[in-house]
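In the design runs reported in the main text, the only information available to the sequence generator was the tokenized backbone. The following block is the verbatim input for one such run; it is reproduced so that readers can re-run the procedure and compare outputs position by position.
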């Protein structure tokens, strides 16, 4: 049984990426899954001055420790103007200051969604290239376009997208064995 940590790269209380994460983890069986709602993780914008004066917050250290205890990570990233949100980039900046290889040995299912037809593919592509710098192994990706047309709380509505999502999840789970 693997330990899996799951969260969205968004701190929005109405995050559609968090909804995709919750659907995904509902399909996982036989593993210890912990879901984090990032609205409970407020971090100041990274600056070297804050780092020197205040150090690292308890929330940041706890997040880093939860990641370190995990064998796998289910992550869905949102997109702002074709890139990851400032919030998610900021989280990565802080975590990498504690330990540049904070994702060492962590297998990742990387997902994204948006209301648009590209499904936050710009953000997914940026994060897919970024996470290996911190030691992550991206084992599968999935992007859900047109969230409001293709998603309900119980399932992905489009048959082909649903199958693609299930295949990505299975590839991720197989990598943990």
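Verbatim output:
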């Amino acid at each position: 049984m693997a330990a899996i940590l799951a969260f969205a790269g968004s701190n929005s209380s109405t995050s559609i990426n968090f909804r995709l994460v919750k659907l995904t983890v509902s399909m996982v069986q036989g593993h210890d899954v912990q879901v984090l709602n990032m609205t409970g993780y407020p971090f100041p914008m990274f600056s070297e001055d804050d780092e020197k004066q205040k150090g690292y917050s308890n929330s940041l250290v706890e997040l880093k420790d939860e990641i370190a205890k995990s064998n796998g990570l289910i992550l869905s990233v949102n997109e702002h103007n074709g890139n990851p949100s400032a919030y998610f980039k900021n989280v990565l900046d802080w975590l990498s200051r504690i330990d540049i290889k904070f994702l060492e040995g962590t297998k990742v299912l990387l997902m994204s969604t948006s209301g648009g037809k590209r499904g936050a593919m710009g953000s997914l592509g940026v994060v897919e290239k970024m996470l290996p710098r911190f030691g992550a192994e991206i084992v599968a990706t999935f992007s859900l376009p047109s969230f409001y047309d293709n998603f309900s709380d119980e399932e992905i509505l489009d048959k082909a997208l649903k199958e693609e999502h299930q295949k990505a999840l299975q590839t991720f789970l197989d990598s943990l064995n």
